[in-house]
Amino acid sequence: MTLGSMCQLKAGLEDLPRAMAFVETAGRHHAMAVDAVRKLQLAAEEVITALDPGTDLEFAVAAGADRTRLTITCHGRGMDLAAFNLAWRPDPETMDTGLGLALASRYVDAFALEADAGGRLVLQFGVDTPYDGSVTPPPPAAPWRFYRLIRPTPQTIMAAGKHLYHRALAAKGNPRAMHPDRLAALTAGDALFGTLAEADDGRIVGCCFCIPRDRRLLDGFGPFVFTEQERRRMARDLACHTLERVARKPYSGVLTTRYDGDCFPAEFFIPARRPTAGPTGGGGAATGTTVWHFPLADDAGGPLHYHVAAEPFIREAATLQDLPRQMIRLSDADLAAVTGDGASVFSTALDRGERAAMLHLLMPGTDLAANADAHLAFFAQEEIALCRFFLDLGRPGDAALIPVLVERGFAPCLLLPGGGRGDLLVLERLSDASACGVAQGGA
Amino acid sequence: MNPYPAMLVPPAIRTIDPYMPSKPDRHLMAAYGIDTLYRLNNNENPLGPPPGAAAAISGLRPERMAIYPSGDAYDLRGHIAKFLDVSPDQVVCGNGANEIIQFVISAYCGPGDNIVTGDKTFAVYEWVAEFSGVEARLTPMKDHGFDPDAMLAFMDGRTKILFVCNPNNPTGTYWNGQTLEAFLRAVDGRAMVVVDEAYCEFVDRPDFPDAATLLDRYPNLLVFRTFSKVYGLAGLRIGYLVGHRDAVYDVCRTRIVYSINAAAQAAAMAALGDTDHIHRTREMVADAKCYLTGALKGLGLPVIAGEGNYVIGGLPFNDQLAYRRLIRRGYMVRTMTSFRFPNHIRITLRRRPVMEGFVAALAAVLEKIT
To answer: Known InterPro entries for this protein (chain A) (predicted)?
Structure first.
């Protein structure tokens, strides 16, 4: 990501014109369309006018491979942090207005709330780079004599992208995620690692790649094989090369959700389970689409906090991966002690294009259940199909969320060793109306 | 003052992730709480160097260490030349085969050129090419061996070197003389052909070619050998290259002189051609290989066992996990994801009791996990 520009502002109406001007100038610098700049301005306006006047804010606009982001950072001291929950609403009896992050997030394509290393709150509003919708179909499959394995370049990944884009279109999925221009931009930005199979006539006949996404996890894509010849052999080669390529990178593992099922080399991976959509929102942990995990990092040991609601899954995963852990079970009596006495804050990354929300616990609190309900209601309203919650089991407060989430249809699908301060438990929930093309098998 | 020296690194280099070697044994033993650690990870010779080399090392006088060694390993090159029946001008020595790979790529490749090799072989060919700005064209292995037709298919006018590891590390496959000569004929001098024979002394097969005997007919042929494996001198880092006189002259253009220390030169001189040591090592390896392949198959594991002092075993779980569990039991193996064999481990062959201990440890790991 190239750093664009940055400025210091104060919340309140006084600095509003400066904020608008800053976003407009930065947007122009990044060659953003007028309506895209306007989206960021609306989001910025919502934040700068809602926070206590005089609050120090840091604004930055940066262009990423596939998205331009406005980042607003504030210290958060003395604020009602509950208002930073995406699902928060002002109490109509006691306040006229408030921080409308839900509203602000509607103006943009992606929203994320995080805390930085200094404990400051970081709000990110993203506008997707527009891509040309007229992607030419790839040439029909033709026989090849030999293939070789190459690293993707922005040019070569585009050839693979054509295949994947049209597959996603045919599957009524989200073609934007596989748009050739997007993949090329990610590759150019060193945010896509993988392997392509190139035939002796120069055609790209297969691919497998990883994209860093959630915290220390890599999202794995493929292998995808675009020919009928030697599909299993090529798929194995592509997977072997891709795993080697990321093996020395600072990620905990690869989670592969989209791949060619007929030739996927499952023997290299650990199966993780994905819930299916159902009337309760998808709690059927054992019956969903299989996703696959490949651990990359070594293990230093440490404590693992858990709750009985996910005990079988966690114990099985810890045994399967031979994790040297001090297993600390939280009883219901312990829950109150570890959740503190304030309001909880969930960190949410919302991707409207993908219809997905990624959450983790920013601050434990006594209202975990109510907060979870509010978020789920908000996601239903926003037609979010996939909710993925990351719990850092190195922290007891995170483990306290396990029973809350399980009761609401989240199913544990992956224990990622060392994915956070401790191990990261990934729970997923698919909405009742989730479309089959969203983040499931098949490009 | 530039606060970001990292910006001086060329973009192509910034995409390369550094290789981190494992920590010294004493650190690993402390970390895993073990008293004994058997190194089954680096294909070292547990018998150590031949007696003559051991004596040469013991006889080194400290005062000689104040004097630079021969800059081009003059005496050693003469000794190797005599052993191979070539001229000393046809031999270049280096600080391990890794350095020689660097000499050769530097000598022949420029921006826009490429090398061709297999995808599951000694990774240093590919690494040196990449950080030299040279494209590494990787062709998939066929039945765990180099596919000569695929390698030829991906040659073009910018291909400068074809690397063939014979026998291959880590799969142990080899090209026989017929295949090697057919390949050299097909290349027809359009590119250099490097035959890396680091493990050739372990091979006891009548059809295994001695590539050095082909040098007269193929001036584009370079043969690599090492003292790190059968000669047990891995700690001294010394290897050599033999080729046609003109080709060696070109390699010497980019050679680093004075890179081989005096101890390595002396030990290598004493070690070369110790057939008793080679036979002892071969016998130990053959016995261990026979035992280990049978034992691994008995555990229901797929095995890739060819020539060389190593065997690959496939596992029903992650190789990093296997590493952790085995090292806790005192056995350090090579994880193979980095060789593009996920969920496989490579095991260096050692004497039977060590192998038996290893198999017992692996069986316990398998039982616990599966």
So the answer is: HATPase_C_sf
What is the radius of gyration, based on Cα positions, of chain A?
22
CATH 3.40.190.10 is right for the domain spanning A147-268 = no
| Per-residue confidence (pLDDT) for residue A334, from 0 to 100 | 80
- The answer, for B320 touching chain A at a CB cutoff of 8 Å, is yes
Decide if the complex's ipTM is over 0.90.
Answer: no
What are the domain boundaries of chain B?
A: 5-48+275-369, 51-271
* Nearest 10 degrees: Cα torsion B330, B334, B337, B343: -50
Q: Each residue of B219-276: pLDDT tens digit?
A: 999 999 999 999 999 999 999 999 999 999 999 999 999 999 999 999 999 999 999 9
Residue type at A321 in one-letter notation: Q
DSSP state of B234: G
Give the right CATH number for B51-271 from 3.30.300.30, 3.30.420.40, 3.40.640.10, 3.40.50.300. 3.40.640.10
- 8 A C-beta contact, residue B309 and residue B199: yes
Residue B128 exposure: Cα atoms within 13 Å on the Cβ side? 22
Which of B227, B205, B190 has its CA nearest to residue B56?
Answer: B227
Residue of B nearest to A319 (CA): B369
Say whether A44 sits in a helix, a strand or coil: helix
Nearest CB to B341; choose among A190, A240, A319: A240
Enter the DSSP assignment of A357: E
> Closest Cα of chain B to A243: distance in Å?
7
The partner residue sitting opposite A295, judged by closest CB among B19, B147, B318, is B318
Q: List the single residue in A with minimal CA-CA distance to B126.
A: A150
Question: Which of B337, B366, B368 should be substituted to probe chain A, the one whose Cβ sees the most A Cβ atoms within 10 Å?
Answer: B337
Decide if domain B5-48+275-369 falls under CATH 3.40.50.2300: no
- CB-nearest partner of A244 from B317, B320, B338: B338
Q: Closest Cα partner for B307 from B156, B202, B226?
A: B202
Q: Do A240 and B342 touch (CB under 8 A)?
A: yes
Give tens-digit pLDDT for B188-198.
Answer: 999 999 999 99
* pLDDT tens column, A201-228: 999 999 999 998 756 789 999 999 999 9
**CATH code reported for the domain at A2-130+343-393:** 3.30.565.10
Q: With a cut of 50, which residues of chain B have pLDDT below it?
A: none
A321 neighbourhood in chain B, CB within 8 Å: 318, 321
Distances (CA, A) of A402 to A26, A232, A327, B198: 42, 39, 15, 55
Q: State the DSSP H helix or E strand holding residue A253, giving kind and residue range, or none if neither.
A: strand A253-258
